[in-house]
Amino acid sequence: MFMRITQEIFKKLNRGPNVVPRRLKFAMKQNDFSSRINGVVVDLGAGSGEYLKYFNEISFGLDITEVPEKRIYHWNFTSNVRKEDLGIASILWCSNLLEHVLSPHEFLIGIKKILSYDGILVVAVPNTSIFNLGPFSGTLQADHVNFFTNTTLRLTVEFAGYEILYSGTSSFPKLGKLLAKFGPTIMVIAKPVHNFQYSSNANKILDKEGKIIFKSESIGH
Fold first, then answer.
1. Which of 7, 91, 108, 147 has its CA 20 to 30 A from that of 63?
2. Are strands 204-206 and 212-214 parallel, antiparallel or unpaired?
3. Which residues contact 22 (CB under 8 A, 6 or more apart)?
């Protein structure tokens, strides 16, 4: 009996390379995601292609290190979007990347250009609310600076001109919204608001190219 229990635990912990990661499996069950999965999926921060291998052959990844044999191409995440990527993505998959980005707001504004008109953005990041108390608490692990909670991630995406389709944790499939505070990973699925512009009270505007222009030269960012 003990041996059987041990074997089951071992199987759970050692699922092998072909088991779909939990957060991707969760996303695949969302209608907004599954209805677009046959289109081009662009994996931002693709790394070694952990997620990319579950997408179709027309999908590809972007990262600092290029791995052409895995359809992962170079982009540094701060320069202009590559011309060949404009308007191509049905899904932008952004898993464990946003916490590396120096300016998340500008990054989220910029990557809209990769999305097709009806495309969606999926962002997944570590959840800090289960480790820290207080509105400005976070965690530091290697080069991960994690300050996102479910609320701050949702607002960060929303304030960059997206409509939120889902906000919660992918760790508890049936209770993702209710238990968002307790899941180790939080996820937002969103679509861009077309012709998005900052409110008249803001000290900045978006020009025709989607570039942020500050109204006052005394305001930096």
1. 147
2. antiparallel
3. 170, 171, 185
Whether residue 144 contacts residue 126, with contact meaning beta carbons closer than 8 Å, is answered with yes
- What kind and span of H or E run contains 11? helix 2-13
Cα–Cα distances (Å) from 173 to 26, 29, 165, 178, 218, in that order, read 6, 9, 16, 10, 47
Q: For the chain, list the domains and their CATH numbers.
A: 20-194+201-214 (3.40.50.150)
Cβ neighbour number for residue 124 with a 10 Å cutoff: 25
